[in-house]
Amino acid sequence: MNSFSLQTQLYSGQGSLDVLKRFSNKHIWIICDSFLARSPLIEKLRNALPADNRISIFSDITPDPTIGTVVQGIAQMQSLQPDVVIGFGGGSALDAAKAIVWFSRQFGIEIETCVAIPTTSGTGSEVTSACVISDPEKGIKYPLFNNALYPDMAILDPMLVVSVPPAITANTGLDVLTHALEAYVSTKASDFTDALAEKSAQIVFQYLPVAVSKGDCLATRGKMHNASTLAGMAFSQAGLGINHAIAHQLGGQFHLPHGLANALLLTRVIQFNARDPRAAKRYARFAKACHLCPDSANDTAALNALIHHIEQLKKQCALPTFIDALKDEKHTWSQRIPSMVQAALADVTLQTNPRVADASAIQELLEELL
Ligand SMILES: NC(=O)c1ccc[n+]([C@@H]2O[C@H](COP(=O)([O-])OP(=O)(O)OC[C@H]3O[C@@H](n4cnc5c(N)ncnc54)[C@H](O)[C@@H]3O)[C@@H](O)[C@H]2O)c1
Ligand SMILES: [Zn+2]
To answer: What average pLDDT does range 340-352 have in this prediction?
Structure first.
């Protein structure tokens, strides 16, 4: 049996921040990082909120939010008791806000509305039942999935993304493509998630290079914002796979940005998974759905076209190669493999990978990378 649910009320397009005008006489707590708290974007958010609201800000979120930050946030929540929580930022701020709200509600704190407002187009966290919290001491990122993590509202206003620099646009855009691909080949994929994943990936192939080179184009930013949310809807239902299970280790141990870690692995993972015949067929279908090869192409030609176009996209977006990105870590790489293998095996995203991957398969994949 398959199930599918959309639990977040979504508002999208230019001017969608105006939906915040509905909040009146509330205590609103904004959760963001220190960069956004100092940027003009926070003023845009403040200006969208009617003046009779009381606004507080928690701006201690760092990339890959930690257990410690979430605990600190829950303590502040207990003393502030806000009516509305707004997660404002990239996936790190949204995940932290979602986790703080989730645990606080379990402690009996009543929060009327949890709002997610992404300022990057990448994680889809605004519509997912997931959050990723890190333990910096162990170097492990823990993805958590629970239906209580869906935000109540999400606002996709492309105006908030035009300031994202090219490298972060590229990294986050490749995260979108990884979500779409992993959801598509997942063991839990369905017609519903396929439709979302295909549309998302079509947009990424067409618009990501433009978003990287012409970041001020609002129409393009709007498309990438939609692609990110579509892929989030897909993977929130269908799950992810080994690409994320390993990328979480590259983030946890080497602090690579999440989207970049995914991008560096993507074509190697496709080659690894495609040794499973069902997965190979699914990749071929994905390539055709994205118009990367003629409909008449056989499965091998379609698979090769997919790999070729992803590598081209990465070049167009000026992403580094795996070896360049991790050259300073080359000397410790083989020592780190055993702990990465164990953590990847325990990572919940591995469960829906199309090819069963045991410790020796993951080890082999990691050994081939550097
Ligand atoms: N919950 C989910 O479903 C999900 C899915 C995938 C990834 N994640 C997690 O999300 C995190 C990554 O999120 P991310 O890729 O959005 O990065 P991020 O949130 O860490 O942000 C990256 C950088 O971009 C900056 N930034 C954000 N918005 C900006 C803007 N408008 N202009 C200029 N700079 C801006 C931030 O200040 C930060 O320095 C990781 O921890 C990852 O594991 C969560
Ligand atoms: Zn991701």
So the answer is: 98
